[in-house]
Design brief:
With 296 residues, the protein is mostly beta strands. The protein contains 3 helices and 15 strands. The protein has an 8-stranded antiparallel beta sheet. A 7-stranded antiparallel beta sheet has the order 2-3-14-5-10-11-12. A hairpin with a 2-residue loop joins strand 11 (175-180) and strand 12. The longest helix has 14 residues, at 264-277. The radius of gyration is 19 Å and the shape is globular.
Length: 296
């Protein structure tokens, strides 16, 4: 029997308590890379990959959903060697434990068993706890049974179920930068060939059941009494270098001209997020074998 529905007012109060930190957002990064890139519609940059009956396109925006029969996923039309990849995403409210909504880069179809991956994943939750945004990097098969994840996880300073927010990754030959509403939350520099993804990748998105690990290590599972679980995407942004691009192609800049990486103002904003909202850093996990993660 389903749990009794909480009164709407109680849910609103609970939501405001969970995201009470939203009153004070991060300091301004001073530069907004997403504003430099023209959004495209779904069909201009992507196609359905699986679960077509669980995908709806309306005026260039995309809705995908998970129920007992299937989830859904999509894939970019082109692969990229570098670039800026993002979308505005609105997450499903309420009980979403076990459910992952994602936007990521991967070459697992080209290199099965030996692939690279750059992840933005929203780990579903129970109504009394906030979503977790997981960023992750896999290099050359470290996600294929030989799990060497490079996870950094964050809570957000707003409720991601109330409105669309912009999430993106900038992949350059020298560094990866993850953004939330143009605020950098994580920088992953290239320290060696062995710890950095360099092979072409496609851009993917999906909603799927990851009950075995997604919410508190698998403690809470997907509960299909609350189906369907819905992910909404719009304002897709793809600007990068493909295999067909000229040798002079380079990815967009993360910062104002004159800075090779983030500006001091952007670094301060990133540090604020990490100080206040980061909930896990693989480099600081004593259970990890640091011989496998030399970049730490």
């Amino acid at each position: 029997m389903p749990f009794p529905m909480l009164p709407l007012l109680s849910l609103l109060v609970l939501s405001s308590m969970i995201y009470s930190g939203s009153a004070q957002g991060p300091p301004s990064p001073g530069y907004y890379p997403s504003s430099k890139i023209t959004p495209i519609s779904f069909n201009q940059g992507f196609k359905n990959l699986w679960g077509p009956q669980h995908q709806r396109i309306d005026q260039g925006s995309l809705t995908i959903w998970l129920d007992t029969s299937s989830g859904s996923g999509f894939k970019s039309l082109h692969s990229y060697n570098s670039g800026y990849f993002g979308a505005a995403i609105k997450l499903h409210p309420g009980y979403t434990a076990g459910v992952i909504t994602s936007l990521y880069l991967s070459n697992n179809q080209d290199h099965p068993g030996n692939h690279d991956e750059i992840d933005i994943e929203f780990l579903g939750t129970t109504p009394d706890k906030p979503y977790v945004l997981q960023t992750n990097v896999y290099i050359r098969g470290s996600g294929d049974g030989n799990i060497i994840g490079r996870e950094m996880r964050f809570h957000l300073w707003f409720d991601p179920t109330q409105d669309f927010h912009n999430y993106a990754v900038l992949w350059k030959p020298s560094e990866l930068i993850f953004f939330v509403d143009d605020v950098p939350i994580r920088r992953y520099p290239r320290k060696s060939e062995a710890t950095y993804p360099t092979r072409p990748m496609y851009v993917y998105g999906s909603i799927w059941d990851a009950s075995s690990w997604a919410t508190e290590g698998g403690k809470y599972k997907a509960d299909y009494r609350y189906q369907p679980f819905i992910g909404r995407y719009k304002n897709f942004k793809l600007q990068g270098c493909t295999s067909e691009s000229s040798p002079s192609c380079h990815p967009p800049s993360a910062s104002p001209s004159g800075f090779g990486s983030l500006s001091p103002q952007q670094f301060r904003a990133m540090q604020w997020v990490q100080n206040n909202y980061m909930v896990y850093n693989y480099c600081h996990d004593p259970r990890r074998d640091h011989n496998l993660i030399p970049e730490c």
